Amino acid sequence: MSDEYNLNNTQYPSLYEASQTLFRIISERLNVNTAYVTRRGKNEMTVLSSFNDREDIIPEGYSVEYGGTYCRMIISDENSAMTTPDLTKNLLTSQLEVTDQLGVKGFLGVTLRDREGGVFGTLCVMDQDERSFSEEDIQYLHSLSGVLSHMIELDQVSYNMAYLNVPIIPITPGVSVLSVQGIVDSRRSDIILSHVLQYCTDHQVHTFIIDLSGLVILNDQLPQALSDLAQALRVMGIRPIITGITPEIAKHDLKHAQLTTLHIETARSLEQAMALIGFSLTETTN
């Protein structure tokens, strides 16, 4: 890989961000519009992550029945790869419904393998124009498929940990606290939103405190989940209060006013938040 690309993992606190950087590198190196990875399900192939440079060809979540995919040809090939300069002229691919739907020509794909060597998906590139890929290009994509395979496995572990890591703490009947820790990406946002709303319903919560003291701001943006969660809580008749606003978050909000426009009550600490709703924390002595 060219030295002009510095893929120091410490620069990427988000696996999603790292994969997007790899896709951009692949797109530039192979001169293609689209790069994406798929995972094989029971009967279909689904796009886990994608990058489209000039034209949006393959969206994330795009799913095709396994028998009608290029991925089937990649997986069944003895070299774990499949390439053609023009999908519309290739005898095997021209008859597939997906070829007509996508309207692309140049294609190259290789397998993704887990640590035990099992094939679980593919890494593919495609372009609207004809593209001829060399053996060097195929080996290049194979080398990056190993990196992406590892990232996907780590991402799955991260997803499972995020699902478990929605630390809601009951304070008193009807009052609970969520401590937001680390990075909140789009997938974790969905998990937090659904988990909190279900929790509030199950426990008859009337006041919900969101503590941001452990939040890590990624890409200079507060998670959209904060706005979505606050609005959903209000719709449910639940009072949201935000605490733990760090200097970093406060400086960010001076520029972007993401918290200000939410018009949510804020408190410096949990103790102050409890005082807002008529409770006080007292120390007992033995």
UniProtKB/TrEMBL annotation:
Per its UniProt record, what InterPro entries does this chain match? Bact_StressResp_Reg, GAF, GAF-like_dom_sf, STAS_dom, STAS_dom_sf
Q: Which domain of life is it from?
A: Bacteria
The record's section on SUPFAM superfamilies has: GAF domain-like, SpoIIaa-like
Query: Matching Gene3D superfamilies, A to Z?
Result: 3.30.450.40, STAS domain
STAS domain mapped to chain residues: 165-277
Alphabetical list of Pfam families matching this protein? GAF, STAS
This one is known as Anti-sigma factor antagonist
Organism from which the protein derives: Jeotgalibacillus alimentarius
